[in-house]
Write a structure and sequence with these properties.
Structural class: mainly alpha
Radius of gyration: 19 Å
Protein name: Glycine zipper domain-containing protein
Organism: Bosea rubneri
Order of helices and strands: HHHEE
InterPro entries: Gly-zipper
Number of helices: 3
Pfam families: Gly-zipper_Omp
Distance between the termini: 39 Å
Strand content: 5-15%
Largest sheet: 2 strands, antiparallel
Keywords: Signal
Length: 87
């Protein structure tokens, strides 16, 4: 079981290109795992674990995406004014 968790976390982090994608994937993995455990313990059935994993995965992805800060760079325009832009 430990090997499966390590492989899942490694695969999730390799599939991400940006910090936002990495945090979204990590949040989804953590949420799905936690939801599966809670759903399985609460219902005692595989269906409850599957539903918990689905709900937890979506919730974790939303939270992971929402808590990631946008990267902002600061530069100067052609008149020397300071401007901010996404980078």
């Amino acid at each position: 079981m430990k090997k499966l968790i390590i492989v899942a976390l490694a695969a999730g982090s390799l599939g991400a290109c940006t910090a936002r994608e990495e945090n979204t994937a990590t949040g989804a993995l953590i949420g799905a795992g936690t939801g599966a455990v809670i759903g399985g313990l609460a219902t005692g059935r595989a269906g409850g674990a599957a539903a918990g994993a689905a709900i937890g995965g979506v919730g974790g992805a939303i939270i992971g995406n929402a808590t990631t800060r946008d990267r902002v760079c600061v530069g100067r325009d052609e008149w020397g004014r300071r401007v901010s832009y996404a980078c």
